[in-house]
């Protein structure tokens, strides 16, 4: 099952407002957050920037990197969001099962463990606040 | 053949006790019959893990220099208000307490991300907690203000004390209205869009000893990962509800008040819990051993999810307005299939308590007993049975300005 410590690879699409175009954002992502980075697309004018990056790194570093980007005022496309489960906090209660519109959660009939199938998730966010132990997390 | 608790304890001490969980015992009795199994088996272990609101903890935080009298003052732990109505440095925290500035349900449904239950979880996990307090100052306790980090290990006493836990059976919640409602039974979708339940069923302590023959005041239990005791019958104890032929209550009936040393507990079995639109609470893990003293006690432990029925209650009207009507009765066996028929309608079901963790607790308790680390106690008094006449009352409201 997906652990929080896992390495993640993601594509994110960034838009830079004009005043941030000249900031060394990419440099900080590599240096301060240990993220491997691939620039897939970059289109920077003196007015605005648009970049598609592929980032690879530890989940925790990744989250911190994204936080850094948002705090710097960059706009990250919401299409890149995803919902993961913190396995440490999940108690296998099942409260999420009937809340999810895309049947991402199923109960094993024998063990009664609650399986989460990330690829079924449509990132509606319904489970985030309905999970009593707050195990479901929204990430970019 | 009848056994005594002392005989069972001798077997536990010598590592010869035969122990099964309340889930395993069903198959054992099916195979060997009641008589043979009663002779062979010494203990059946039960377990439950779910939100239990009437939980709390009290602490003696140690005296300050100079002294402060918190009693009559104000105390908060990580900004969650604690109760300061005791002597100098005794403080009590309830699982449902919320920070003053929590928006609660101002924007409905409120999120309730942090409260008393979470503080208890963090203390048990060994985290430092911020204590802030003000007091009025006396000649013997002159100090008026205190701000400090505290840690569970530095306190004199830290005791979990829960006045109502381990409900013997519970309602199944549905919503018959045409909008979503947010309850302590979880998010309930409109027009009976789902049904939620909250019981470990065949593993649940009081459902395996429905007439309170072995579980009583003084029974030693698994509590929050450590050990505890049943201190009293729980609040709202209500033994006289309808029961099945074998005595299993079909409504919430018995409850337990439990106590134990917080310092030996674990945050895996004591977990801060948020109910959207309702509030914060704590999920508690409890396991109770049942000594198999005779066949009758054993027979009760073989109860299965198909034998336990619960009332389906409408939480949009009947529950809040205290109307007696129930939508139907349904077994945990059916609830666990994930879909049930209520009034001819197919309704998906969800559990709020964790069955895997209830099973885990029953297994841990079984292992502790088998390994000679957990001996049984004889209760010093019984819980109020059906014959006690104990009944759960509603408040008789009397207008303050009227006659007494
Ligand atoms: S509601 Fe939360 S804790 Fe319960 S099974 Fe779902 S993800 Fe796990
Ligand atoms: S975010 Fe929505 S779709 Fe994804 S698992 Fe949660 S409830 Fe289901």
TrEMBL record, chain A:
GO MF, one example: 4 iron, 4 sulfur cluster binding
Methyltransferase listed as a keyword: no
Assigned keywords, A-Z: 4Fe-4S, Iron, Iron-sulfur, Metal-binding
PROSITE patterns associated with the record: 4FE4S_FER_1, 4FE4S_FER_2
Protein name, entry field: NIL domain-containing protein
Alphabetical list of InterPro entries matching this protein: 4Fe4S_Fe-S-bd, 4Fe4S_Fe_S_CS, ACT-like_dom_sf, Fe-S_Ferredoxin, NIL_domain
Ranges of residues in domain 4Fe-4S ferredoxin-type: 81-110, 112-140
Pfam family name, one: NIL
UniProtKB/TrEMBL annotation, chain B:
Pfam families assigned to the protein according to its UniProt record, in alphabetical order: HcyBio
Protein's name according to its UniProt entry: Homocysteine biosynthesis protein
Domain Homocysteine biosynthesis enzyme sulfur-incorporation as annotated: residue spans: 17-376
Domain of life of the organism encoding this protein: Bacteria
